[in-house]
């Protein structure tokens, strides 16, 4: 199976003349083996509705349960995965795991929370990507409306195949979020034409929200623009209670961050209210 995955991946890349950084290094071999051996695990971070305090969804975040080095975050292996092209296989595994785990969790707990999955530019460039997503939904039974695909702002740079795929998926009911919004501003001039539903306001903007001053002018401006374009906004990296209050009062829809809850195994996601709502 591992061999088959590796062969498939290699042959496909060679056909496309896209032979990536060498897979013949010990690190790359380790990573490919980890993916095919099931050493990747998914942690889930709650996304909270700021108006009601309810759990709105969770974001799936990949980890590598390394036999010697412990639980590794994506910073330790995503760059290599991107450079070697194995990120496509990694993404497919995370997507399937997230759909199946979240559907089982919805059945177990009765929660209506859905899941957001991070997608790399390489996956989206693959014409077979929409079919892969639709198959993961069909196989798991997860409703399309319960899936959000997060694409970083910089990944939107290559438009043609990507927007076609995203349009197809949105027609099926899947939502699309611009991740780390505001770090590139590359999407700003055509935001009204992109197939997106949600802006994820980058943590660097949330960091500048300090006590006693409401939101910053830039955050207020992003929220106003999102309202005008009928996009929802999720604030990332909320670490303090005053940020929750300021963002809620400014009309931000949802938020996630260590102040609310860190990424955890799905069964540890707090289903109770995390935000105090003013009477
Ligand atoms: P992201 O999608 O912007 O995810 C948010 C990151 O911020 C996560 O880091 C999360 O743990 C962290 N975070 C959340 N709240 C806070 C907070 O209050 N303070 C601070 N300091 N950090 C917070 P993580 O899990 O290390 O992931 C890093 C990045 O790796 C993600 O950024 C995403 O771009 C990428 N990534 C994660 N999982 C996947 C995946 O399955 N596929 C792909 N292609 N990329 C992934
Ligand atoms: Mg994300
Ligand atoms: Mg993000
Ligand atoms: Mg980020």
Automatic annotation (TrEMBL):
Residues 24-277 form the EAL domain. It comes from Pseudokineococcus basanitobsidens. The chain holds residues 309 to 587 of 587 of the full protein. It comes from the Bacteria. This is Bifunctional diguanylate cyclase/phosphodiesterase.
């Amino acid at each position: 199976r591992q061999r088959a995955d590796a062969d498939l991946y290699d042959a496909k890349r060679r056909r496309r003349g896209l032979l990536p950084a060498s897979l013949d290094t010990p690190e790359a071999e380790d990573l490919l083996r980890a993916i095919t051996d099931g050493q990747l695990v998914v942690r889930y971070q709650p996304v909270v509705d700021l108006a009601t305090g309810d759990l709105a969804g969770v974001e799936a975040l990949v980890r590598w349960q390394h036999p010697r080095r412990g639980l590794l975050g994506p910073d330790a292996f995503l760059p290599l995965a991107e450079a070697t092209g194995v990120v496509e296989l990694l993404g497919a595994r995370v997507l399937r795991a997230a759909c199946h785990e979240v559907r089982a969790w919805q059945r177990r707990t009765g929660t209506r929370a859905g899941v957001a999955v991070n997608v790399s530019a390489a996956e989206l460039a693959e014409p077979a990507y929409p079919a892969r997503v639709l198959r993961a939904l069909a196989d798991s039974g997860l409703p399309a409306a319960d899936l959000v695909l997060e694409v970083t702002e910089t990944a939107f740079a290559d438009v043609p195949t990507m927007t076609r795929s995203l349009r197809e998926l949105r027609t099926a009911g899947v939502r699309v979020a611009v991740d780390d919004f505001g770090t590139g501003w590359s999407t700003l001039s055509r935001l009204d034409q992109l197939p997106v539903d949600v802006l994820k306001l980058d943590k660097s903007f949330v960091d500048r929200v300090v006590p006693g001053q409401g939101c910053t002018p830039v955050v207020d401006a992003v929220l106003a623009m999102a309202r005008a374009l009928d996009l929802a906004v999720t604030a990332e990296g909320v670490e303090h209670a005053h940020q929750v209050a300021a963002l809620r009062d400014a009309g931000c829809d949802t938020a996630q961050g260590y102040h609310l809850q860190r990424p955890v195994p799905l069964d540890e996601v707090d289903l109770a209210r995390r935000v105090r709502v003013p009477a």
